[in-house]
């Protein structure tokens, strides 16, 4: 265990000196802040349009005033979650690949393998180091986005909102760790470092971009901005009746979506943050009752990814990188 922690400390020290890592995280933080600002500006535009409409109604003598749009602070994080699920996963792959590749490029791999450490000390240390790094990064992003909601969004937060943000932060940490561990295992298993990076990026393309996009495209409610059923002013009971006629199609679409870990991360985050209207302002217990299956699947994927990284980052596979 001491050897594992020593290697983890080495990874932390390396990443602290890595300018690329700092640039990537800074870019992710800026993108998240911009997304909060854009969402807040969009709501203010809606509010201004509503106020103008109310003034026009008053001028015409009408006494019927529609309900004002409500700002739900955590819904400002939608863009940040989407950036994290796409760019965060890509950055996690780059870091996971880098933990193996840098040892060869710096000429330290042979020295590292000459040390009397346990069989799993090297991969476990690398995974542990990245776990600590991502914990720190997610903590900083959580603080940044919380401050952005208060300052940029000018929206108050309650205690329950902070709890929801912390739950989403834990989910994000596990999601990023999954991709880093997967990249470590793929890179170690590949005969060439470049091949490992290419394979990892192909996996990212398929499960982060292609499969979720196909599922979204197959969803009829996503064909019109604001929702097809809402645009046609179809009530929820009637919407369910329509969808009942396409149960098989919807099952295929949903099955395709949930085959991607990205959708598990997205659905968990959207539910606990209340970004999805169905769970907005709902008790955490009710959200958990609907989402526990996704949480278990995500945890199982993390365990499988870490096991894959530790199990296949063997001395034999690493030694092939020396030649």
TrEMBL record:
Protein name (Swiss-Prot/TrEMBL): Polyphenol oxidoreductase
Lineage: Bacteria, Bacillati, Actinomycetota, Actinomycetes, Micrococcales
Transmembrane portions of the chain: 20-43, 83-100, 120-153, 165-189, 196-215, 291-312
Organism: Cryobacterium adonitolivorans
GO terms of molecular function: ABC-type transporter activity
GO-annotated cellular components: plasma membrane
Entry keywords, A to Z: Membrane, Transmembrane, Transmembrane helix
Highest taxon of source: Bacteria
């Amino acid at each position: 265990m001491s050897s594992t922690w020593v290697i983890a400390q080495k990874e932390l020290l390396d990443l602290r000196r890595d300018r690329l890592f700092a640039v990537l995280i800074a870019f992710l933080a800026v993108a998240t802040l911009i997304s909060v600002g854009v969402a807040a500006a969009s709501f203010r535009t809606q509010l201004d349009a509503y106020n103008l409409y109310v003034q026009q109604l008053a001028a015409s003598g009408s006494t019927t005033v529609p309900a004002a749009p409500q700002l739900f602070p955590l819904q400002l994080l939608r863009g940040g979650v989407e950036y994290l699920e796409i760019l965060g996963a890509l950055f996690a792959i780059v870091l996971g690949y880098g933990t193996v590749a840098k040892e060869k490029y710096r000429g330290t791999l042979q020295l590292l393998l000459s040390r009397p450490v346990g069989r799993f000390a090297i991969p476990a240390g690398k995974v542990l180091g990245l776990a600590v790094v991502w914990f720190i990064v997610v903590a900083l992003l959580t603080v940044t986005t919380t401050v952005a909601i208060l300052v940029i969004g000018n929206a108050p937060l309650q205690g329950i909102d902070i709890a929801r943000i912390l739950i989403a932060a834990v989910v994000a940490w596990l999601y990023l760790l999954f991709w880093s561990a997967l990249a470590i295992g793929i890179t170690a298993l590949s005969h060439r470092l470049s091949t490992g990076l290419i394979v990892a990026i192909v996996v990212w393309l398929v499960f982060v971009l292609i499969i979720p996009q196909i599922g979204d495209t197959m969803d009829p409610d996503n064909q019109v901005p604001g929702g097809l059923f809402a645009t046609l002013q179809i009530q929820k009971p009637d919407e369910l009746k329509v969808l009942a006629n396409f149960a098989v199609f919807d099952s295929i679409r949903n099955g395709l979506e949930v085959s991607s870990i990205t959708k598990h991360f997205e659905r968990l985050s959207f539910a606990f943050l209340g970004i999805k209207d169905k769970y907005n302002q709902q008790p955490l217990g009710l959200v958990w009752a609907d989402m526990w299956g996704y949480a278990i699947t995500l945890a199982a994927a993390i365990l499988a990814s870490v096991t894959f990284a530790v199990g296949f980052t063997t001395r034999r596979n690493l030694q092939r990188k020396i030649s």
